[in-house]
Fold:
Amino acid sequence: MLLAMLLFAAPSPAPASPDDMPRPPQLERDVQFWIRVYSQIDTNAGFLHDQYNLGVVYETLHFDPGLAPSERQRLVEQHRDRYAEALRRIADTPDGTPLSADDQRIRDLWGAEGNSTRLREAVNDIRFQLGQADRFRAGLLRSGAWETHIAETLANLGLPAELAVLPHVESSFNPSAYSKVGAAGLWQFMRSTGRRYMRIDGAVDDRLDPFRSTEAAAQLLAYNYRVLGSWPLALTAYNHGTEGVRHAKESLATDDIVKIVRTYGGRTFGFASRNFYVSFLAALDIDRNPEKYFGPLQRQHEARFREVEVPAYVSVASLERALKLQGPELRELNPALLPSVWNGAQRVPKGYRLRLPTDGSPWTRELLAQRLAPGEMFTGQRGPQRYRVQQGDTLAKLADRYGLSIQTLARMNRIRTSASLKPGRTISIPETAPVTLAAATSHEPPASLAPSAPEHGVPAATAAAVAPPSPGGAVSAEVAQRESAEDAVAAEVVVTASRGNAPAAQPVSAAQAEAISPALGPAAETQQSADPTDYSVAHDDTIRVAAEETVGHFADWLGVSSNQVRAVNHFHARTPVRIGQRIHLPFQKVTRQEFETRRREYHRTLQASYFAAHRIVGTEVYIARPGDSGWTLTAHRAQLPLWLLQQYNPDLDLAELRAGTQIVMPRVQDVSSGG
Structure:
């Protein structure tokens, strides 16, 4: 009986094999397109091409490096209009009628596919792709600093070594990269997804740490593989979200990446999602043969450092004094510490592993504590930042400065978004404010940021207990809603138009490409998410019940009474719904889209609240015993909610488990006390 209850280390994905990253012949033209983008043209050039048939490249446009982006855009539009007119003209030309030399060239690009109907469709599919060769080459050079750690991390989890090239596609191996939609770091994590595996708060953002974010990316990729069953799908989910790819797989009844890329018509499955796997294969080809494409290269040397655990909450100024190190040197080694730490508004957290130069003294936690004065060590973090309004300040300016939405800042201070700010007024700035690119590169504290924020900690020498008090894992709904709102604002992305609509604007310069996304390709159409649950409403007005949902929830989101929901489904009074059960919904008061939005927001808030106090640190496998269910498995694990167990086992009926079934159990760490 004891053996049946043992938890084992979760089996890692099978060792890498040549079939892990298949390169289907049907996708070869797409791979070759991205190889050309990454190696043949830089950010002063670009391709005008068809967004569905990447073998059709109408023209390579070259720009003068000094040409303004507006002039570049004007040239792109002129050439796009010229090719649109040519396609219409060719489509309207009767068969057998001679074409001009240029029209014949365009017609020949399409081959047998170029019938009149297809050419008319292609009028709306002309897209511009900026070259990336200069950015890719720079990424190759930078990659040397972390390639050893990435390789070791992947090997330790049994993941394919090929995954190490993913940062080429995501960030050009730039650990300071920020995207317009809020993704950050080498692996471009969104805050909501990153908090599953990393520390992201008002003092630390591990997304900016190449080492911690690598470990988090490996966990996310392994999770995607377990849920989706193949690496092409797992990689596509890194861009499109686990739910989106799972829905594509189920709706087409296939895990064939070719069929999904070519035929799936999901509303948000646009150019970026269709091209993510093939662009990864292109990056893999170039990374394996860099000299073939760029000539001799000298990659950066491996990053080396020592680490010491910080014994209490300590200001960076106190650490600089005790360690006898200058701020810039310490800052370069510790990119995850946010500007709020460097400007003194926040302390370096207790337990943080501070990186130090390799040529210094062999510091230990105990030695560092001895070198710090008792009055320099605290048991808690500083409170929320306070800002005194200056002449000319507006809510929009402050929101932009601190990387927040206007709505979030207004809601936190209980004012209207249109309210004017009087000089001298004090505004609260949340500790968890995401860092903007400008803030991340600034060494100066924001103007009038009150340095005398209330002390929530006391000197360690006078405290009754050295350990900071724990709030018991509770996280306020306000915090969860704020983080949820920030992620929702971050999801306002540039979407490439689907067939039949005018294409969305594409970057025409390196600066514009960085402004949209540091990724070597188009901006993602959807927000990165690891939740595989399908929250959509089916065509017959039914849904599958997810964890933490009740009839009362459905009634609230529908704007009807619980009795109406029960009547539609012929439920007896107080009959509970089961996870996975399909139920009908009455849509008299709200649209299906409104219902889906409310439902997703509920789960987004629920998960944001949980991951503000918990972190996934690994997985184990549990062998089910007779009588086990999802409820019994989580009842004795206070930190593991049923919805998270369901996410790791989306194909299992947790209400009726068969004895002997293997269940992946996420291992969760409580970080609510700041550890």
